Amino acid sequence: MGYTPLLIRGTVLFCLGVFFCLVFNLLQVQRESTIFSPEVLARLFSSAWWVAPCCGIAAAVIGLLYPCLDERLGEPHTGEWSNVMRCIAVFVGINHASAKIDFENNLQFSLTLTAMSIGLWWLFDRSGSGFGLGVAIAIVATFITQLLIYHGVQRYTKLDYLFVRSWLPCTFFSGGVTMGNIGRQLAMYDHRKVKDE
Q1: What is the pLDDT along the chain (197 residues), one digit of tens a residue?
Q2: pTM to 2 decimals?
Q3: DSSP letter string over 87-115?
Q4: How far apart are CA 85 and CA 93, in angstroms?
Q5: Residue 156 is inside which H or E element, if any?
Q6: Which residues have a Cβ under 8 Å from the Cβ of 87 and sit 6 or more positions away?
């Protein structure tokens, strides 16, 4: 089979990660909940050019990791592209909600987004590996974001706990599940193609 299908899958996932990053960052900037430090922006030619490629790399790694983990744990994935598209729609909805909906308090908002994220996993994944990897992604990505904010690279207009917004782990979790499902579906397509040859 070679490395060509893996490279193509990684490239598709990278491009999707960059695209989603740009769309969701636009939502956050419109809401004025994310602001990049002026000093950092001045140094980086007035744009945080590194954010979208980092999200693209993360999407590629996550999307390639999910099918590998499924294979190792013996959890076969039997999805369809229509299911993946619905998963993407729910993921966009969760991010839209985090940017646009105002709740009475942060706890209510966090619990709502947590329920939506777990609902996304339940509807479109339901695997133990998917849940575990989604939680790991949420923890690691939130920690990295906290480090960036602590060092003044990025900041939020309002902070809920420590240095970040309370909705971040939910969006990272749902993003991990979504990219994992896309990666799984791309891997299934490659496997079917190899069998047909």
Answers
A1: 456 788 999 999 999 999 998 887 777 665 554 555 555 444 443 346 778 898 999 999 999 999 988 888 887 777 788 999 999 999 998 888 776 777 677 777 778 888 999 999 999 998 888 899 999 999 999 888 888 777 777 666 555 554 456 778 888 999 999 999 999 999 887 666 555 55
A2: 0.81
A3: HHHHHHHHHHHHHH---SSHHHHHHHHHH
A4: 12
A5: strand 154-156
A6: 120, 123, 124, 177, 178, 181
Write b or e for each residue in 23-54: b if 16 or more Cβ atoms lie within 10 A of its Cβ, otherwise e.
ebbebbeeeeebebbeebeeeeeeebeebbee
Residue 63, Cβ density class (10 Å: 0-12 exposed, 13-18 middle, ≥19 buried): buried
Burial, 141: exposed, middle or buried (Cβ in 10 Å; 0-12, 13-18, 19+)?
A: buried
Which distant-in-sequence residues (6+ apart) come within 8 Å of 9 by Cβ? Answer: 63, 64, 183, 186, 187, 190
User: Cα(19)–Cα(33) distance, rounded to whole angstroms?
Assistant: 19
C-alpha 112, offset from chain centre: 18
Neighbours of 104 (CB within 10 A): 7
